[in-house]
UniProtKB/TrEMBL annotation:
Similarity comment: family membership: Belongs to the HerA family.
Region (Disordered): 333-373
InterPro entries found in the cross-reference section: HerA-like (IPR008571), HerA_central (IPR002789), P-loop_NTPase (IPR027417)
UniProt catalytic activity: ATP + H2O = ADP + phosphate + H(+); Couples ATP hydrolysis with the unwinding of duplex DNA by translocating in the 3'-5' direction
Pfam families (UniProt xref): DUF87
Residues that span the membrane, as ranges: none
Extent of Basic and acidic residues compositional bias: 352-373
GO molecular-function terms, A-Z: 3'-5' DNA helicase activity; 5'-3' DNA helicase activity
Domain Helicase HerA central: 23-218
Name of the protein in its database record: Helicase HerA central domain-containing protein
Length: 373
């Protein structure tokens, strides 16, 4: 199998290494299938998957997650803002309603998370209360105050009534998101086995989803730095542009720029490459580009136009669903690829009127009225 992302000379792995994620086949100019191709999972990577709506980004992310589930020594964690990765649970994976500990979000970030100015009265009170509560909860980093205990501490704080009321209301909002729990399992539990874990963030408000992604990205990074997890985590983020726009941004940037050294991989899929920071493309060693048409998104590809690629990448993008151009830093090449079919069901794609209960009922009624037709 041809393996993208693998530097044979540097890591000594060869093409028979089991740490390979099957991706699909090379796509010949005449549209026929060429040799089988995979992605290296022996070493950590940063990758981006681009493509306009419906071109197969989420599907490709699912193909990679499925493949990683078969690789010994790694653990895929999928951030699923649209609730389309439930199919991964059918092969031993699990879909979780994510909860994280309040202490997983640094005190300095809480004002921003709840839309408060950190230099204003309520913002600075919240910052101080969280910092004090985390310190009081314990120095082992595992204990966390609950949102309820933070609210109580605010009531007791030496601050004007109006300020305390504002902070309590904002904490009530955070509680209503349902993603904070002082007794939440540690982030390391997500990678305790090699089966895919899907964090179902569908219906979760954007700020809350950002908090979860921050806690998970940072938690996995810290756990690898301190040696508390053995497996190499792969964080796969769908609709990634949304997370670079909030409190998750610094944690994702850390993975992009420093994640590979401790062994954490990041794969970001987005329909809006132009909404990702430049560092997402410049730090990625693999780029998978499905069809793109919007000017700024096509321009974002220019960042990947490394000197080893002659010519215009945008002009080389394949047009069919599930087809992509893969730019590989390790081999310094770009190839058109047809992504293989999923083994587990994919939940994406636009809803079809014909698949609704209403359509099924109408069809049944018509057949009853006209049994011969
Ligand atoms: N490699 C593939 N092989 C077969 N079918 C595919 C492949 N890739 C995508 N498809 C089909 O195309 C549909 C759309 O793909 P997908 O949901 O991944 O699009 P998307 O680019 O993520 O869109 P969105 O931005 O709406 O999430 C899928 O439901 C699937 O039926």
């Amino acid at each position: 199998m041809n393996v993208l992302g693998r530097d044979h000379v540097a890591d000594g792995a060869d093409n028979r290494s089991p740490a390979t994620v099957p991706l699909g086949t090379f796509l010949a100019r005449d549209g026929s299938d060429g040799a089988v191709v995979g992605i290296d999972a022996d070493t950590p990577h940063a990758a981006v998957i681009f493509g306009k709506r419906g071109t197969g980004k989420s599907y490709t992310l699912g193909v990679i997650a499925e493949g990683l589930a078969d690789v010994p020594g790694v653990a895929p964690v999928v951030v699923d803002p649209m609730g389309v990765f439930g199919g991964l649970a059918e092969t031993g994976g699990r879909m979780l309603d994510p909860v994280v500990r309040p202490a997983a979000i640094p005190a300095a970030v809480w004002p921003d998370l709840l839309g408060l100015d950190p230099t204003g009265g309520p913002g600075s009170l919240l910052w101080r209360i969280v910092a004090d509560a985390v310190e009081a909860a314990g120095s082992d980093g595992d204990a966390s105050p609950s949102i309820e205990s933070l609210r109580w501490a605010v009531s007791e704080a030496d601050a004007p009534d109006r300020t305390r009321r504002a902070v309590r209301n904002h904490l009530r909002l955070a509680e209503s998101w349902g993603v904070f729990d002082a007794a939440a399992p540690p982030v390391t539990s997500l990678v305790a086995s090699g089966d895919p874990t899907v964090l179902d963030l569908s219906g979760v408000p954007e700020a809350a989803a950002g908090a979860v992604v921050r806690a998970v990205a940072r938690g996995l990074y810290d756990a690898r730095v301190t040696g508390t997890v053995d497996r190499l985590p792969w964080l796969l983020v769908d609709e990634a542009h949304a997370f670079f726009d909030g409190v998750a941004d610094p944690a994702l940037r850390t993975l992009l720029t420093r994640g590979r050294a401790p062994g954490v991989s990041l794969v970001c899929a987005t329909q809006r490459p132009s909404a990702l920071p430049g560092v997402a493309v410049s730090q990625s060693d693999l780029l998978v580009a499905h069809r793109l048409t919007a000017g700024p998104d096509v321009d974002a590809l220019a960042t990947a136009e490394a000197t080893y690629l002659a010519g215009d990448l945008a002009a080389r993008l394949p047009t069919g669903t599930g087809e992509a151009l893969v730019v590989d830093d390790a081999s310094e090449t770009a190839h058109a690829v047809r992504v293989r079919e999923r083994r587990t069901p994919h939940g994406g794609g636009d809803p079809r009127a014909g698949d609704t209960e209403a359509a099924r009922a109408e069809r049944a009624t018509r057949t009853e009225r006209n049994p011969g037709r």
